[in-house]
């Protein structure tokens, strides 16, 4: 299947409604990918919508102004910032926009950890570790095994101790759940982002 050329949509967007919505959908897709969500399903799951519903938005379908606003809020883009966006070529704004998206999510995770740890400054979560938490929670929007988390996502050695070191706190906080909590040593054990874990990733207030 030929890749859709967004430049043609842009040239027609002023006069053609369908082309206009395709431009908006392409812009949303660009934000989603650069924000660290590799698939529409990953973002949809975290944002609380079905894959088909969200995929329709990226394809310029069923996209209302309110829906567009709500999607931008998921990327920490407020209404007052819209005029600074380049819908035609998102790459013009990408460095600032993506930094703001990623940093807002990192700050949110760090703040929640401080609250849970009762502001115990002996446990200081840095930005790199917070980003790793985010990566794991996004990756585990569907159940993943220890092997998948450690080798496919983090490119680390596949061991119980390594998982405990990088994801143990996520489990303790209730952000990452076991598919078989009654048998933690189940060789088929998998891990999935909980509802509270998804809420940590949401930037909508």
Automatic annotation (TrEMBL):
Domain HTH cro/C1-type: 28-82
GO terms for MF: DNA binding
InterPro entries linked to this entry: Cro/C1-type_HTH, Lambda_DNA-bd_dom_sf
Pfam families according to UniProt: HTH_19
Stored Gene3D superfamilies: lambda repressor-like DNA-binding domains
Coiled-coil parts of chain: none
Name under which the protein is recorded: Transcriptional regulator, contains XRE-family HTH domain
Organism, as annotated: Mucilaginibacter gossypiicola
